[in-house]
Protein 1
Amino acid sequence: MKIADYHIHAIETGTFALDGGAMFGIVPKPIWSKKIPADDENRIVMALRCMLIMSNNRNILVDTGIGNKFSEKYSKIYKIDHNKVNIESSLKKHGLTNKDITDVILTHLHFDHAGGATCFRDGDLTPSFPNATYYVQKENLDLAENPTEKDIGSYRKENFEPLKKAGKLEIIKGESEIFPNIFLFISNGHTLGLQHVKVSDGKNCVVYCADLIPTASHLPIPYIMGYDLSPLIVIEEKKKLLNNAAEEDWMLFLEHDPYVGVIKVRKSEKVFEIKEKIEL
Ligand SMILES: [Zn+2]
């Protein structure tokens, strides 16, 4: 898919699994398990899908996957699987290595988005993309450094402190056009200062939904996650995004959907549904 001067690709970085009940909040299991089946530990397998935006002089990555710093115990709990596909193998398909990434936009610092931002190299924790500038919203970094008791397990310092130490983390305040035709807008319901990436040339538009709409199974408005900090704010932000997407024919990039990467939606009555599935 080409938008403005950018070639845009979906980059699979592996899979992991989270508790299906936590992923679907108040929705009863007999309903959600028809959409994404649970394993014998009640977990659902999910994608760790990043967006790669390539131009003549930039290779921009949106989010980084879960990374490979987890202990064996937690790798099992989260069913982390990098065997079939990982960030290196996916970048290689586009002729790139980690060293070619110029910019990494982190939507937020939860471990399944920022875990791949850092890695162990020669025993030291270091940025995984050594030539990249990383971008995060100030409000999200502030929360990650002082998390609440609810989200302390999701914000792990090893995913962002090495970036700060290396002078590679650029802190952004608020919405902006970060590069020509690449816009950042904020949502605050899932967590504070979650930055969504929107690439638009006025004709075609793709929006990286991150955890505001993690999968296509979360299109119904009340299907929101137990992880969300402010459920009623998520509902308002999600409605606004889906209404815009339906009216303006935007593509929605789904980070965690195990079956489909990018969709367009339509509104019928008061319900949003998939209008088209798109291969990037
Ligand atoms: Zn999150």
Note: Residues 2-278 form a domain with the Metallo-beta-lactamase; Chain A fold (CATH 3.60.15.10).
Protein 2
Amino acid sequence: MILESKSIRLRFVEDSDAEFILSLRLDDRYNKFLSSVSPDVEAQKKWIRKYKDDEKNGIQYYFIIERLDGMPCGTVRVYDIRNDSFCWGSWILNEKKTRYAALESAFLIYEFGFKQLGFKKSHFDVMKGNKGVIKFHTRIGAVKTSEDEINDYFEITEESVEKAKENLADKIR
Ligand SMILES: CC(C)(COP(=O)(O)OP(=O)(O)OC[C@H]1O[C@@H](n2cnc3c(N)ncnc32)[C@H](O)[C@@H]1OP(=O)(O)O)[C@@H](O)C(=O)NCCC(=O)NCCS
């Protein structure tokens, strides 16, 4: 399955992406609402090599978001795959992103989870202060299911995503 849209594509992470991933995760413009990672490139490479087993075994899928000219501009990851729902996160886009890379990458992740993996719904958490991202998800049709001190928890159905995609066709096609 080729996960490609108007201006970006998703491809699986390789250990050679370690520096790029760290450049995103260690950048204070992007990491305020993400869990912290070690700045050690070798440790990141080791983590990716171990992750590749998870990818083969269908436990998690970690993608680089790249522009169609090959320039990497972000990451996104599918994990916590349950019986009836998949979770996604580790979602970052840097200043090389295209205008609607956020919408396109979200729709590509939903295409992967709904069409390729066969789920009908998806779940994810967003840290409470991350207002722009909460708004992003709510506009597409995600519903808040619970919260704790740190996170809001959301769910979205394939049906809601399909509707949003139709409404936003002028931007993403
Ligand atoms: C999360 C992240 C990848 C989202 O990307 P983003 O580019 O900031 O996303 P935006 O919400 O600005 O959406 C991009 C564009 O699509 C538009 N858009 C988004 N949803 C839309 C909708 N439903 N309808 C119409 N337009 C929409 C936005 O208005 C924006 O366009 P504009 O620049 O003309 O205003 C990025 O903010 C990021 O890397 N954040 C730091 C890491 C992080 O917090 N990750 C999330 C952890 S849960």
Note: The radius of gyration is 15 Å.
